[in-house]
Amino acid sequence: MRHEPKEQQGRIYRWSETVFERMIAFYGRTLKTVLRYQTITLLVAVGTLVLTIILYIVIPKGFFPVQDTGVIQAISQAPKPFRFKPWRRNSRNSPGHPQGPSG
């Protein structure tokens, strides 16, 4: 790959090159700032780690189940004069009923 003169480069290429150069300049400015304030940067990083550990200990963990059993449960309700065989036939034909390997 060889370098093309600026006159032959497209508009999108020049735009992306400008964006890339600005990102590098921003990185350079922020790196100089961090290196100028190394102690404060280190204290912020350690403080973030300590706060993360404290929140991990304090926040309740009951929101997510301990393990996923891979079971999906469904409940069907039927009227009082209930007969099992017709209900079973109808429930297997319902769109939400999983089909086995035979389809």
Output the structural class.
mainly alpha
Calculate Rg over CA atoms: 32 Å
Described by its quaternary structure, the protein is: single chain
How many runs of DSSP E, i.e. beta strands? Answer: 0
Low-confidence stretches: none
On the 0 to 100 scale, the average pLDDT is 81
| Helix/strand order | HHH
State the share of residues found in helices, binned by percent. 40-55%
Main β-sheet: number of strands, strand sense, barrel status? Answer: none
Global geometry? elongated
Head-to-tail CA distance between termini: 56 Å
Number of helices: 3
The fraction of residues in strands falls at under 5%
What descriptive keywords fit this protein?
103 residues, mainly alpha, 54% helix
Description:
The protein is elongated, with a radius of gyration of 32 Å. The chain is built from 3 helices and no strands. It is mostly helical and 103 residues long. The mean pLDDT is 81.
